[in-house]
Amino acid sequence: MDTFDSSELAFNRTYFAKKYSRTLKIPADAHIPTFSSSEVPQSSGCFNFSKNNLGFENRFILWRSDGPNLYLDEYSTDHDLQSSSLCINFNRANIIPGVKMFSHCGMLILIIPTQAAIHRIMVRLARDDVNSGHKSILAYFPRDEDLSLHWDCRHLTTPGTAIKAEINMTSAGHAFISMVMSDNQLLLVECPFKIGPEPLKETMLQESRRLTILWKTNDERNGVVDVASAYVEDDLL
């Protein structure tokens, strides 16, 4: 009979870098109102590669959002990584809780929801290049001059301000973003892997009679305050 014991791994710095030597700046869109004065809670999360991502099994990425900045740090349980920290700055925008990272078709996909838009950054996973020099995947994120080749952004057409998001992705790379709005409505945004020039499909779920009955209470308050979702056998739950 096999037995298992817990173990702890100590890294050569704290979870997040003290200083970030590189900052990737995401441009703002002039016609989108700014929310710089709004208070948005900090959030954090992590991503680790599956066994299908050969060469990346023992790596993981931590991130932390603070206002317009998203801080990312990558670690490996095998060796120290080079260029393993990155700050992404979203000019005149605040990142809301709900940042997610996925791997699909040999690419690392980072989806960042803000109060008025959805940003997506895609980086190709070059296993041989990354492993040969113990380089961090974050080192392959685009430079400012190449940003348009790896980044796209879609602004919400539904009026209101998003305060929280939950993101899931299908095996075909189709992303579903459930967003809680400041007026306690629930908005579902669909983002296909290949995005065209047309706006993303947006559906206000809270307008559904079934959801209204589900959340209705004795004091008649039925607003949405949080959201969680799962994608199971082609069904979004």
Index terms:
237 residues, mainly beta, five-stranded mixed beta sheet, four-stranded antiparallel beta sheet, 2 helices
- End-to-end gap: 38 Å
Binned, the helix content reads: under 10%
Tally of separate domains: 1
Sequence stretches where pLDDT stays below 50 over 5 or more residues: none
Structural class: mainly beta
Number of strands: 15
Outline: globular
Tally of alpha and pi helices: 2
> Strands of the largest sheet, in order across it?
1-5-4-3-2
Average predicted confidence as pLDDT: 80
Q: H/E element string?
A: EEEEEEEEHEEEEEHEE
Q: How would you describe what is shown here?
A:
It is a single chain. This protein has about 240 residues and is mainly β. The protein has one domain (about 25, about 35-235). The chain is about 5% helix and about 35% strand. The chain has helices spanning about 125-130, 210-215; strands at about 25, 45-50, 60-65, 70-75, 85-90, 100-105, 105-115, 115-125, 150-155, 160-170, 175-180, 185-190, 200-205, 230, 235. The strands form four sheets. A five-stranded mixed sheet has the order 1-5-4-3-2, with no helix packed on it. Strands 6-7-8-9 form a four-stranded antiparallel sheet, with no helix packed on it. A hairpin with a 2-residue loop joins strand 3 (about 60-65) and strand 4. The longest helix has 7 residues, at about 210-215. It is globular.
